[in-house]
Design brief:
The protein has about 650 residues and is an all-alpha fold. It folds into 2 domains: about 450 residues, no CATH class; about 140 residues. The chain is built from 19 helices and 6 strands. The strands form 3 sheets. A two-stranded antiparallel sheet has the order 1-2. Strands 3-6 form a two-stranded antiparallel ribbon. A two-stranded antiparallel sheet has the order 4-5.
Amino acid sequence: MKPNLPLPAMIAAALVLVGLVLAVFTAGPLENPQDRLFRQIDEKVALAQRMLAGYNPANSRLTAVLGSEGLEPPEGADGNWQTYVSSGEQEGVMSDALRRQAGQMRTLADRFGALDGQTPAAAGAWLASSGQAYQQLQAELKRNMSLLSDALRVLQEAIAMSDGEVSGSDHPAATRLEAALCYHQADLLRREAALQRAMADEARFQVITDARQWQELGNRIQSASRGLAEAGSADGEPSAPAFAERIASLRTRREAVAAAIEEARAEAQRLSAIIPDITARAKAADAQTRQSQVEMLALKEAGIDTSDPAALDRFIQAYNAAAQAEREAFREATTLEHGALRNARVDTNDDEQISEAPIVAIDPATDIKPERGRIALESDLAAVEALAEALQVAAHEIDRQIEELTAKQDGARQRAANLASRQTAIAEDAAGAARIALAAAIEAHRLEDEALALADGRGQQAASRARRAAEKRINDARTQNAENNPDAPNPRLTMITGDANLTGSAMALAGDMAYVIAATQAQRGDDLARHEAMLREMQSMAMEVNASLLPEGVALDQVPAALAQADAARLGIQEAHKAAVEAAKLALEAYQQADSPLRQLWVLHTQMASVHYLLANLSTGNEAADHRDRALQQYKRALTGREERPEYPIYQNVMADLQD
């Protein structure tokens, strides 16, 4: 049998039960509106944190804002994103790696580039393996951007909530997380733009490689067109016009040799015709000489008839006639055989003066006429025949040279045509690469504009909202605590009043916005320098940015001038550099203001070091050295005693770069 409860106990139990029931129905109406609204917002903040479970932050700042519980990735999470962000705050690993690889390939291309118009393998082929990496990174970036956007939408819905005069914009945690997500969203846009610019770099490298080969081919084609004998191909062979000049010269010589051959043959024919006649005449004269000698001998043998008084006269007359005939015949035979001067005599009777006396005409009315004898004529005939033969050999050699040079000329013309064809193909290849580079650069520019607008607009507004919410939270706590007994303050309100982290983290978020603006502008300026180089090379090929090189649906007037004109790119570099320096200094100022409220938080010091590192890269001389020293000091200060943290190797690499 159960014992009966005493009546007072039963009454007390009934009162407790009634109190609990009343509490259930009166809790809502009696709850403070701010507490009620903030409780609802806390649920949305927790939801946003859970939505970010798959997001790997680019650094530890978001973790510091949210707490490690809200951002721990699940077991077995994909490590691609962490690999990408492990480059630290300056740039993505893939972007840097691709640029280093492209630089090495550029060196190899310069070293082994063919001089005969052959193009080495295109950069796109060398970097074919990077395409998959790009796609993976883009997918990871978009996945993280989607996570951030969804979480940010939930937070903005929470901040837009209100309960009477209480607004969600007064919730410190929600506004702070909103600002942090705006920063990371802007930074993801910057990183996505960096990935686009890395892809543009591959295409730019191809454009520059093509442009240099195009210029080399153009120089060779131009040299050939000038027709300089020494300005031909790389092996010193004459250019095509020089071949034409040499062939024309040889043909002129060939015509002269042919004329000389004809002349020699005509002379040989003439000599061949007169030599037999002269030979016959010489024989006749020689026969006459012998006949006269026989007659003279016969006269001598016959003697003189002494009985006949006229016999002596007849003898003398006959002998003199025979002697005269013999002399004339001998002289004629000698002249015809050896040659002589016709109608010539020595103008002296003194034998001692005969070698010095002048030669005069026998018949003054007739000219002295030299006559070549048979021997000389036969010698002339042999010489002229030898000359004709030699000239014929020369003609054959000239014909051979003409034939050889004509073949070489045809080959040179074919090579020139091949060079021109190759140059055209290279120009088309360069245009295709330029089209890819421009598409990536235009997209990168758009993403950077979006990042800059986000950071400088909604981002800074969110940071200001977070700071106002933190300050209001502290002021409200201070006011409420003042209503309590001074000897018995509310511990929770006292803790809130003394929590400088609320305002300090909001200040740091304002610095983050300025920093991402600085990093984005620095990235833009650095990339525009490479883009300008491509545009200059395009100018050398008489190639300009026009509608044919733009992505489909993009008009020329929609393209930023810095991406279409080299001079505008140079101006854009200067403007981006100036904006980056100004934003970096604002970021540094904001971080320095947050340093004391955050009690020298080490993560904040790494951010200050990153800003100094960025300013060092944006400066020169002593100013750059000073920022490098400050960056190194801040890194060492922040990381001392934290060597076991997973981020330490990343920062260690950065410090090693600073010390080089």
